[in-house]
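Human:
I keep going back and forth on a fold encoding question. Comparing notes only helps if you start from a blank page. Show me how you would write down a chain together with its backbone fold. Write it directly below this note and I will take it from there.

Assistant:
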Amino acid sequence: MKTALAHTAAPDADAIKSYPLVLDLDGTLLRTDLLYEATLQFLKRRPFGIFLLAWWLCRGVAYLKHQVAMRSDLAIQLLPVNEALVGYARGAAEGGRTVIAATAANHELAAKVCTRFPFISEVLSSCERQNLKGTRKAQVLTQRFPEGFAYAGDSAADVQVWRAAQSGVFAGRDPHILAELSKNTALEADFSKPKPNVSTWLRATRVHQWAKNGLLFLPLLLAGQFLDLDRWSACIAAFVAMGLTASATYIINDLLDLEADRQHWSKRSRPIAAGEIGIPQAVIASIVLLSAGLLLAIGGAGLPAAGLLVVYCAVTLGYSLNLKRVPVLDVTVLASLFTLRLVLGAAAAQVRISAWLLVFSMFLFLSLALAKRSTEMGRKSASGHGEAPSHGRGYVAADVPLIAGFGLSSAIAAIHVLVLYLINDAFSDSLYRFPQLLWVAPVLIGLWLGRVWLLCGRGLLHDDPIQFAVCDKVSILLGAGVVASFAGAALIP
């Protein structure tokens, strides 16, 4: 029987191609891990099931995998795969080479995955009592293929298997593991995946969305505290804290929404959904970002601001778990999260905030959230799937007229409330030396909202109106005009 010792001589290329090709699944053929995917789905349905997971783990990893697999209903066809390796394995099978899967994943999930790849003729996997990983996998494969085999893997646990194999295929990210493979086994092919870089993490944390947090400075500016450095310092700390916290919640939302994102025309390219960032790394990043945000808020913006951040996190988590699937309530929650930024800015700067401004914010961001939903449903309807509820949402194509009507009404209401603010607060506020200039603001904001809904109706709006606003030249110009009108009203005699 062949042992897991380093080979004394490397086989030639023709001999290598004659060996059965054994494929690992997690992190190799798939760009994700079945256990983590199934666990996330389980916790999304039963958040308090985390205690049950701990109990199962006490009985062993194999038992945990089995129990989670029994309760999972993963959309196997949507899982991201290593396309280059899939093509290589398919070509090997078409050339007459035996291709099988050997994975530490539980048999229930592994069997479902392999039905997606007809070129895989056999599946070796974990069961309730055995975790097929590392040395145990090497032993099983050596017994199954005493004449030799080639193995495709990605992690440190696969090193023991490569040592027992005649050739190795690498599909991981760590160059040190690739070097370890090459020391003991002939390298048949290299399908290395790039490690997540700064750009990948910036996309995952959606740093461009930090532009929303500029709302935190609005109460400070409207209160006329332009030169108070202490208030500016507190607002800047709140701005960064909100950014870190929001980035953490974006990652959590992506983790809870993997299946829906993978069915979405643009969200499928998000780093976590596409498998560019692993689920464990994403969980760790969200914990670090959330902790940093709360600590910064406590130290730099004060306890009231930190308390509002906790409220923001709770509402966002509720939105990610369930509220996003309730029509109309979902967009109302989104608008409230934007308005909460104004309240947080006022708490950090310790200034009064006008009730008119809060109502204006609710109507404005409600309109934008409805534009986002209208765009999503318009694209879905155009693809011929408009009768089914949108992925992760509760809307159907028949709701588009209602969404558009509600959105346009909210836009008009926002302009109306802004006019009432100018009449009732701004003109009587000693902050403004030339308040007549403020009449420019509702005109420009009305033009911008009209542009948003015009493009939405034509199907030309980006499905994120905020991202559209920070990239669209016309929007930037109109926004600059609004800022200039308030600045001029305050500064011009």
